[in-house]
Amino acid sequence: VINGIRDDDEFGVITIVTPTLQSAYYLRRSLAAEGLFNTNFLRLEDVAEQISAGVTTGEPLTDIQASEYVYQVALDSSIGTLVGGERYSPQLQAALHSTFRQMERLDESQLDRLGSANPNQNELVKRFTAYKKLTSNRKYGGEIARQAAEIVSKDDAVGFHSVTALGTVILVKAAPVQFELQVLFDALSERDNNMTVIVDESPSLHGSDDESISTFTVPTVADEIREVIRQIVQLARDNESLTRTAVLFEDDSYANRITESLQAVGINVSGPDRITLKDAPEGRFILGLLNVFDSDFDRLAVTAWFSSSPIGDPSHGGQPIPSARWDAISRSAGVVRSVKNSWSLRLERYQQKIVVDAETSERRGELSDDGITAAVSESKYTQQLNQFIQSLASRELPDKQLTWIDFVDWLNQLINDYLITDESGRERLSKLLKRLISLDSTGVKPSVSHCIDVLREQLDRKNAGIRSLGAGVYVGPLWTAVACPFDQVFILGMTEGSYPTIPRTDPLIPDHVKIDVDPERLVARSRSIADSKEQFQSMFVSAGKVRLFWPRTLPGQAQQMGPARWFVEVLQRLSHSEFIAVNQLLNHQVPELKEIQVNALPPEIAGGESELGVLGALEWVEDERSSQEFPLLKSNDDLQRSLKFQSERFSSSWTEYDGNLRPEGGSESSGSATAFETYATCPYKYFVSKKLKVQPTKSPEELTKLDPLTFGTLIHEVLERFSKDRLTQVDRSLTPEEDRGKLLDELNKHIEKLKDEMPGRSHGMWDLEFSRAWSMLQRWFRDDSEMLSRGMVQKYAELQFGYGNKPPVELMLDSGETIRFRGQIDRIDVSDDETRVHVYDYKSGSSKSYESLDRDPVNKGGMIQLPLYSEAARRLYPDADMSAAYWFVKEPDKKDRLLPPTDKYDETKARHRLKSVVKVIADGVRSGTFPADPGERNWRPGVGQTYENCAYCEFKKICPENKAFLWSKKKHSDPALSDYVALTENEVDYKDG
Ligand code: SF4
After folding, report:
1. Residue 576: is its pLDDT beyond 80?
2. Cα(951)–Cα(933) distance, rounded to whole angstroms?
3. Ligand 1: centre distance to CA 960 (Å)
4. So what's the pLDDT on residue 904?
């Protein structure tokens, strides 16, 4: 066409009007090879601006400003309350804005018709009329195009010289022209000498050269991306120009995936930037900061902000904050939310506690140098965190009306002080902030919450900017690439239901009303799909080769999906068939459809270094060569260790990766009942908690009740205080009512202490916890009175042994070795004549798992407290009858409250069993035997399906998922495990001796 024009007018100006900036760029580049001069490339909207410049008046109305005017009319209750007023929400505002854009196209009579459809539409039209009034002196796109069209149509119009300046106009039509611009497009195309080049207006595909189209199917989207990368790398190997290659899609989630995968293999990417600011570090910084203020410094919001954003600490020279350390500190300190009630109080208390604990331990000589250094460091970090939070909290914006510039100033100062970013990040933010400042031109002072809503909405917007053009593979939505003369085009994601993307339903005007009023101007959903189809078809004309991809499953779904309808239409055409059933496609009966066999790819087609490694490894293993000899592995220590770890773990042998550690020498000759019980339950748990001393930090999020440990401690402490106080009363002269009153006082005192330690919990929660505890304590009080009435007297409460200068319990085993225990007995009752002794251990949980104590007095080593405490009590009362029981204060049923029943305890049998399990445990620890034993699979209330030993284990996260499988595979593989296996698997029954 250009050559034809040049035949008549060798040096005249030619203007090529293209649908997009991208098509302007790629057409110019493609045509420039032939030699171009005096030829301009412009979009239709640029032509409109150029022609009407100087003729139209008024400030241009930007999208964000329009949105602000929409906000004003949406809030106005005097217009109505059906679609606005009190029903206002940011979502409604966004919907109104989008619908108003379409309503701009309607004439008076159409607006009347829309308004008469129903009361909602009537109010909608009123709000639109109010919006038009507010924006009457502003210029917007449709108005500018209309004025430009008028100038083009009249040779004597003011401003006509700018039409002449365009020279001969070639209009490239590759996709539906936007409704607002159609009038200008028509006016230009009707002028003599101008002409329209239509890229494709027929519904059929390419036609003659079907060789240029290929279709592929892959199992998943991940496979699809890998295959595309492989094919692009192959293009590069074939010396094809990657700058004339495009990867297109409808679903925007492809943008990041493709971009990252191409960049990972060193291929540059160009095209529109489809990343929202909220996905970029600087956007996450702002969003996280708003969430922190919004949630009243909720710990989770604060730590999410810490870990997701590049934050500097202004009081430490802008150094990056130690986010992981601060997260752990805030957990350990028990922070929940609110700077005043939680952060300050708890961090200060935590810091003091660290110092006091460290000083005490140092005095006792229990703390090593490393321990002292760690405590000092923890204290410093805590202080830094506290200062950081206090200083940030002081920057909170007071809730009042303000100007946009005030809001942006506030934000800018926070960005300057806290955000770590580079020039490009700052630039992106500064563009956003400039847009916000432009809102002051609407003349209304917004509230802080409205400013924040607008900022959030803007952060969530796709960046419309072009990253770069022509510098690499073009990656973008298909509509951005219409009329671009690419050599190679990949169209991805052609799966049924997701291609084309189903347009969202307009919540304000239903489709049937749109169709009734004007389906073109109001863009019914059917119209959007027709437009997408036209854009899709134009690709087959503008591109050299097109490759279509159908992934058979979508991310997060297991079910196989058929191909998109347009994909099938292409295949029908390629296979000259009028009908193809999905079954034929799934059963490989359509030769034109290439199925990528992702499990059988040769290394030479790898799309990058890492894939080459993976495919090479697969081939190596398939050839049955030793994995140890794989060259990449031999050169990488980390991989070698990983492989050793995997193969040993999955082997049938008992290895160091399964808890088979080096013997320590000596023996486990002292400990507590709990430590020995932990080993008997799961040796690996013992190893992690007692040997490695790993301490899980609980998440202190707001709870509706106290956790079981805190509640149990509360009950224990109240009983201890009450009992100790009672023991000091020489004559025991208080009446039962006075005693009950003292018990209640103790409970009140301890609840108040807890309230102080755990601020921020609701009154309702404390009332409930008080009632729960008091009902248990009253039950205990009744039982206690009954027991004491039978001639027994409580003699000891919380009696310690093995601590300080108190002698430990020494258990001489049959082998001759002695094991020393320390511990604390909750209660010892003695008869008046000191011939009977009852030892008790209080439990605030359920008695369920203690039912087997009558058969096995130590429950396979998991419950050794009673025989051990009896040993301690025996030293005080060498000749008395000894009995011991767990006292379940929570159990409503009396028969479950004492287990085993006091008359069923057999001290001799219990001692015998205690010695045998203690031997297994001591030997296990000494020989370095620490397997992970999850126990039987069962169901626990509040936990669900789990393993017996793991249900409440704090180390679940660091234990292998397949622990039950591994344990079943290995437990009989080594004699070193046999004693432990016998202990936990062999049932004993002492009931009948
Ligand atoms: S999760 Fe289970 S197997 Fe792992 S340490 Fe805890 S109890 Fe043992």
Report:
1. yes
2. 12
3. 9
4. 85
